[in-house]
Structure formats: C-alpha cells, structure tokens
Specification:
By secondary structure, the protein is of the alpha/beta class. Helices cover 45% and strands 15% of the residues.
Length: 266
C-alpha cells in the first residue's frame, strides 16, 4: 500500500517542472491527484502517463488567479475523488522580459504576477479548506521561494509574492490549527524546470548556465523537481503532524550562505 492511499491531492501548476514532480510523487505513493494547470497538452500527457502506471489522476485546465476557475478546480477534485486532503499551491510565474526595477514595472505585470503567485494561493486555499474541514483535517503546502527571504535584483513583484506566501502560511496555520488543518511552505532554490531552462537559453549556452547556477549552491548543483516532491510528501505525511506555520528551504544550502549570490530560483 502507498503512503497516501485514499488521499486526494490537488497540485496547482501541476503539469510540469516542480508541480509535475510533486504530482508524480503523490500519485506514485497512492494518492488520487488532480493536476491544475493552464497547459492542456502537458496536463494530458502527465495524467495519461500516470494512469498507464495504474495511478489515479485527472487534470483541470484553470487559471488559479480566477475566482471561478479556482472554485471549479476544487469542485472537480471533490466530484472525482470525494474531497481534498492535501493542496499544493505551486503555480507561479516570473515572465521573461519582466526583470525590471520597481519604477519600471507595469501595473499589469505586477497584477499578473501577484495574481497567479499570491492571489492564486488564496483562492485555491479558500475553496479547498471547507472540504478539508469536512474530512476532519488536511494539509496546505505553499511552494514559495528562497526569494521570499532574500531577493535577487529586478524581481520586485515576484519577491513580494513569495514573501507574501510565507506570511500567509503563518497566518493560515494559526487560524486553522484548531481544525487539524496544517499549513506549511517550501522554499526551493534553483530548480531544473522549464522556466529555469528558458532563462538559461536566453542568457547564452543553456547547459553552461545551468552548471554555473548550480555552482552557486553549496551542494554544487541545481535541484530536481523530485527533491521538492520528497519534501512535500514528508510535510503532508503523518510524520510531520506536529509541523505547521513553518517553511522548509530545499535549496542545496543556498540560504546558509547568508547573502544573495545567484539567481533563478525556479
């Protein structure tokens, strides 16, 4: 039997990158997984692959910054799998071309990044928590960033959104602890994701850039989505039943260095 047999898990931005790793990890551990993403091709490919392995998985195409989409995503998870036990708020963006100082940031750019990264966390949690309450408890895992603690230059909206996720994590943990709903966060370092690879290609030689960024981490490499999946599954498990309102840095020792020394968190 899997660790998460009988559990229903919702993963936003769950089709690829960190989210794809998290979706795969929970599904292979026995959970019924709802992948929430805007990329239908990637969502269909991942859930189809998981179903071929004998896992229970479905996808919902949704923009987590939309009230209606977030509500619908949770409703479909409840309809298919009976409820929600674990919500992983992973959906996040830092669009190419939007690396700017605050006074050069557009209102539209600010609203879009905050909308997906922070408002999406709020909306998905808002609609998932009632189902967790009905099931006697649950876990919300917010995928924030080391940039919620220290920031690289030129990402004011992204840094603000991730710092906001950490503050929201602490607040939610206090509010829902009496209902056996734990709320925790993970701060990834640089991770081998499509977003990071796109940034690497834009910077020059993709493999050389990835290797360079890896060397900024004391452990000597960038992380893999499976590294975040392992942390998420631990935090969602009964082994972490006394952990709430906290965050875990999964960053290859990056934050131990003290000063910001690199870039490209995801």
């Amino acid at each position: 039997m899997g660790t998460f047999d009988g559990k229903s898990v919702v993963v936003t931005g769950g089709a690829q990158g960190i989210g794809g790793g998290v979706s795969t990890g929970f599904a292979q551990a026995g959970a019924s997984v709802t992948v929430v993403d805007i990329d239908e091709a990637a969502s269909a490919a991942l859930t189809g692959s998981l179903e071929k392995e004998g896992c229970a998985a479905q996808y919902v195409i949704a923009d987590v910054s939309s009230h209606a989409d977030a509500k619908r995503a949770i409703e479909q998870a409840v309809a298919a799998f009976g409820g929600v036990d674990v919500l992983v708020n992973n959906a996040g963006i830092q669009p190419m071309g939007s690396y700017v100082k605050l006074d050069a940031e557009t209102e539209e750019g600010w609203d879009r990044i905050i909308g997906v990264n922070l408002k999406g966390c709020f909306l998905m949690s808002k609609y998932a928590i009632p189902s967790m309450r009905e099931r006697g408890g649950g876990v919300v895992i917010n995928i924030a960033s080391v940039q919620g603690l220290q920031s690289q230059p030129l990402v004011p909206a992204y840094a603000a959104s991730k710092g906001g996720m950490l503050s929201l994590t602490r607040n939610m943990a206090l509010d829902y602890a009496p209902e056996n709903i734990r709320v925790v966060a993970i701060n990834p370092g640089s991770m081998d994701t499509p977003m990071l690879r796109t940034q690497a290609r834009a910077a020059g030689d993709e493999d050389a850039m990835v290797e360079t960024w890896g060397r900024t981490h004391p452990i000597g490499r960038i992380g893999q989505p499976a590294d975040i999946a392992s942390a998420a599954m631990f935090l969602a498990s009964d082994q972490a039943s006394f952990i709430t309102g906290e965050y875990l840095c999964v960053d290859g020792g990056y934050m131990a260095r003290g000063a910001w020394a690199g870039n490209n968190e995801e």
